[in-house]
């Protein structure tokens, strides 16, 4: 039997009235030639179909999308911006659309964009109105394009109209709704810059955003999301930012922020209604977010907010780019909206030390406005912290390295028994790849290694599978497990460097990169393994920890022709991987020598400090030394100083 009310009071309804809104027309907004893009129509399709197959949509009131009226949109955006979005999809803009889109930051536009933007904004208005009127207890608007980055005169970050800001102004303007104080909770992994600006001086709207910030280097990459940004004039104190110093934040971090900032403030503010900018890109497995909130975490965050505003809550979708993660997160939220049942599950980890630091900074900054934040947090509490990033939930330091969701699933999600989670994961797609494999197995190449792969037992993990000393994660190996046919060493005029804060395989500390361009004063020792081009493809995949399915090769014969001419070859399919740039180093016995490293753009980011240069960890450095020594290239002393040199010389 569904909809059992385990809550108190015999008079309560057996089923809460929960609204859900989905409209296929919002899928007509997509990239002009349907090029792949994280913000694509399948996002809302995946959520909608998940909610249906789980039987949740059937327990909700399904609402129709509506286009927003210009007068409400104009309460947030300027006339010129509204004119652009209204007209952009018409025929006479066909030739100019791409050029206009390129003037914005992270925006694409097509014939369907206008309608989708109007529907997204109008749909959030629609569900908000119904919840405000009491026709519904709460609701979820499954909308796109998202909205929270969109500013007064600016589309950005995949957002055209600021859906949540528009709905907020609508609620405040309809006096008979009696909604005078609104809490906006923005749990999208990115800062809600557009929403912040909309209500900067407005004390009727308490804007709260928790986001990756990394001192202003995470998108939108400025200081707007800093905790010192608290609003101005009458709005001072009504803007609260919780900026993460690092990625990898999970349930424990978010719930600590809820318990020690958001919930006490919500109590004191006492909102008439809550709007959630519900991006699910802080979810475990998200390709952009690099955080690891589980469905249980989202459920708890939502549950804790339901004690306010008499449960009048509207969720509006923002970001979230892993289809399985966003579907499961949305499902967990819907179950909370529908049920009085308590959420079960547990958070095993502690918050990061940096999380306590940020919480304390926020409380300090805002205690003059919110007396509930005035007390110092007890040391007994703040000393409970994750030792160092726990390896099993350590998602690499970059905001982009593709994730192995499977591993995270087992460690983090499976214990959360009541929330069914089945994140898809890829294995080598054997059947589809048979044909290219049999072709590429006939071609030999030299795979030239400059990092830990110089130590043969370590490299063999990429062929045979498994792990060796110092590695924190096993490799899957190649499909063809035959050993390298030959091994030889050579030096090349390239610069070796170490960067990034941590890696999945070695933990904290930098890993080796090769400057893709050569320079005469540089020298790098390289161990060359003669393997097949098929095996090289499997190595490429493992080096770039990707969910790419290998139904076609990453690097084929055409790529080989191309690289001999151009010198390097970027792998589009794993472009988020750290080693997606294949570099050609010449020929050896009529066989091409190939290596893999980052591209020159990343080198620039290393140089500017945007991506950190970092010395290797002890385990990792030892592996390199071992490779050089056992390979007969250098004495131990020489090897140690060679590595140290590369790790300390400025770029
Ligand atoms: C809504 C949202 C992300 C934009 C990232 C641009 N936008 N690199 O998640
Ligand atoms: Zn986002």
Beta-strand residue percentage:
15-25%
Share of helix, binned: 25-40%
Please report the distance between the alpha carbons of the first and last residues: 65 Å
**Quaternary class:** single chain
Structural class by helix and strand composition: alpha/beta
> What is the overall pLDDT average?
90
The total of beta strands comes to: 18
Shape assignment: globular
The low-confidence runs, each spanning 5 or more residues with pLDDT under 50, are 1-12, 388-432
- Please outline the major beta sheet: 8 strands, parallel
Bound molecules: N-(4-aminobutyl)acetamide, zinc ion
Q: Numbering strands along the chain, what is their spatial order in the largest sheet?
A: 2-1-3-8-7-4-5-6
Helical segment count: 20
| Integer-rounded radius of gyration | 26 Å
Architecture overview:
With 651 residues, the chain is an alpha/beta fold. The chain is 34% helix and 15% strand. The chain is built from 20 helices and 18 strands. The strands form 4 sheets. Strands 2-1-3-8-7-4-5-6 form an 8-stranded parallel beta sheet, with helices on both faces. A 6-stranded mixed beta sheet has the order 10-15-9-18-17-16. A two-stranded antiparallel ribbon has the order 11-14. The N terminus is likely disordered. Bound molecules: N-(4-aminobutyl)acetamide and zinc ion. Zinc ion binds next to loops.
